[in-house]
Amino acid sequence: ISETIKEAQEQSLTRPNLGEEDKSSSSPFANARVGEEDKSSSSPFANARVAKVSLPADIFKVEVSFQSFFRKNFQKIIDEKEEKEILETALTKGEKEISQRFGKKIGILPEDFKFLNFKILEIKINGYEVPKLSGYKGKNLDFKILFTFLAKSYFENYQKIFRELKLEILKIYHPFEKFNLFLNMGDGVFLDIGGELTQGFLLKNGNLEKIFDFPVGAKRFSQTLSETLGILPARCRALKERYSKGELSEEVRKRVNQIFAKDINLWFQNLNDNLKFLPKKVFLFGGGSLLPEIGEILEQNEFLAKIIYPKDLTLLKDSFSTPLSLFDSPQYLPPLLIIPSV
């Protein structure tokens, strides 16, 4: 973080003054100030006015929480006041449940989490889905809520970085908040195979059912290659890319396949452990999705695996004036997901 800030200071990254802060903004960065434009700056951020960003997957988390309530006065129609009170209670309970669970998992106190965004995915009254609470009556209330969050210490460090860069951050997004952009692909498991982690979500009947991640990503394969062959990580990445593109000789390809055997079995075991029931359709994206072993082990276990590219998402394609065919790798998909909301 300090290196990033130092580099920013050396480059004198500034941008035009945006004027007074927006008092109505609910952004956690609403009070970030901006400076005068540096005419000499060649930074790509020099003319940036605002930004929407995502953060590393091992830091910025997304989770679905299920909350249920019982109304004593269930014969009474819910008015707007009661609706607001119920929703606030559901959000508070959801944050508390997630904070306690993740606090135990990573070893920090529940109050040391910062929740950034939430989205109510589903509301049910007596088992029937409704668009809102007000105007309805019933005894049993069920909510499905998506939350994004991170440790407060990380949040404060990123705030400092953004302010040093003179950038006003409108919102921090997790790519999976845009799961609806995948709906044209149908139901299945969607896996983003990144560097440190594999993240996934399950769509069933067009609904988001589960989000999960596990610490086996493309970097692990590169490390194994480096340790086995005794070559530098940079050369390993280049070798892995050529391997994924099928540019190596058959002899070398077989050797790399043998080296990756243990890691790919570990990857698949983690996938099984995170989903009790795996739909037969698995969609892959992210830089690691191009590794041949990923598709092979899925097909060996009778799954239909498909790598998806930005151009495959109809709803995403409609949001761009630039042809998505220019983004010709599945590794570009995660960052592109936050753009339609800008």
Structure, explained:
- With 342 residues, this protein is α/β, with parallel strands linked by helices.
- It has 3 domains: 2-56 and 154-172, no CATH class; 61-148; 181-341, Nucleotidyltransferase, domain 5, CATH 3.30.420.40.
- Helices cover 34% and strands 22% of the residues.
- It has 9 helices and 11 strands.
- The protein has helices at 2-11, 80-106, 152-164, 218-229, 233-244, 250-274, 292-300, 314-317, 333-336; strands at residues 51-53, 61-70, 113-125, 128-129, 140-151, 169-172, 188-193, 198-204, 207-214, 281-285, 304-307.
- The strands form 3 sheets. Strands 9-8-7-10-11 form a 5-stranded mixed β-sheet, covered by helices on one side. It has a 4-stranded antiparallel β-sheet with strand order 2-5-3-4. The chain has a two-stranded parallel sheet with strand order 1-6.
- The model is unreliable at 11-45 (pLDDT under 50).
Write the layout of secondary structure elements.
Blueprint: H1 2-11, E1 51-53, E2 61-70, H2 80-106, E3 113-125, E4 128-129, E5 140-151, H3 152-164, E6 169-172, E7 188-193, E8 198-204, E9 207-214, H4 218-229, H5 233-244, H6 250-274, E10 281-285, H7 292-300, E11 304-307, H8 314-317, H9 333-336
Parallel strand pairs: 1-6, 7-10, 10-11
Antiparallel strand pairs: 2-5, 3-4, 3-5, 7-8, 8-9
